[in-house]
Write a structure and sequence with these properties.
The chain is an all-alpha fold. It contains eight helices and no strands. It has a single domain, classed as Four Helix Bundle (Hemerythrin (Met), subunit A) (Up-down Bundle), CATH 1.20.120.
């Protein structure tokens, strides 16, 4: 294979992986819409549409600022994924979708009293803040992946710029923040139970991932000596 043929092949594979990622995200949005409105038993749910609109806006902005390789990596089939991460990632699906299911049922059966508008606005602000932190983390770390693995094929190195100067897992902190904000946007205090389970699993994932990187990623131990906190500056 000539150099040009290899470049063409790599480009084609990247385009296929980007398409896969697009399909994954599309399915995710469709599933979210179905769960929200089916569980609520109505489609005239203002704050659900706000949430969906914000989610799509985040996707569009990220698609315009992320590198093609970063998007492609998130869509391609993963090699040497940590076994424990497959378990945690699988478990995360249930409370993640549970936020939408419980929120919809809450709206249908009116379990939560009608929240003041400032609570919804706080949820929107929190959701945006969390997503900004996730996006910043992804831009700063070209090895940011949907699965915990050492990306030997891409020359995996430690990310130490952007938010990684302050905490070791800023992407997870961003995800925790926006998942906690979601129930407030949707107006369901009961959905905070599901959000709490999501947070718990992300904390567990952080612990396991941090230990994995210490043992398997070159220079990560030295990085932990400079950046001492995993998720919350000054605390943990």
């Amino acid at each position: 294979m000539t150099i040009q043929e290899k470049l063409d092949n790599d480009r084609q594979n990247t385009e296929k992986d980007i398409l896969k990622r697009f399909l994954q995200i599309t399915i995710s949005i469709i599933l979210t819409v179905i769960i929200l409105f089916a569980s609520a038993g109505r489609i005239d749910w203002f704050y659900a549409w706000i949430f969906i609109g914000l989610s799509i806006l985040v996707i569009v902005i990220n698609a315009s600022i992320f590198s093609p390789e970063l998007v492609a990596e998130r869509g391609r089939k993963k090699e040497n994924v940590e076994k424990w991460d497959r378990i945690i990632s699988g478990l995360l699906i249930f409370p993640w979708l549970g936020i939408y299911l419980v929120s919809g049922l809450d709206i249908r059966f009116k379990w939560t009293f009608e929240l003041p508008i400032w609570i919804h606005i706080l949820g929107i602000f929190t959701f945006i803040l969390g997503n900004v932190l996730v996006s910043w983390s992804m831009i700063s770390n070209k090895f940011f992946s949907t699965a915990v693995r050492i990306q030997y094929e891409r020359g995996h190195i430690v990310a130490n710029t952007g938010p990684y100067r302050f905490i070791r897992h800023p992407g997870y902190l961003g995800m925790i923040i926006y998942h906690l904000g979601t129930p407030f946007i949707l107006g369901s205090l009961w959905a905070l139970i599901m959000a709490g389970l999501v947070v718990t699993l992300f904390i567990i994932r952080t612990i396991f991932e941090d230990n994995t990187l210490k043992n398997k990623l070159e220079d990560y131990k030295e990085y932990t000596e400079k950046v001492k906190y995993r998720l919350i500056p000054g605390i943990w």
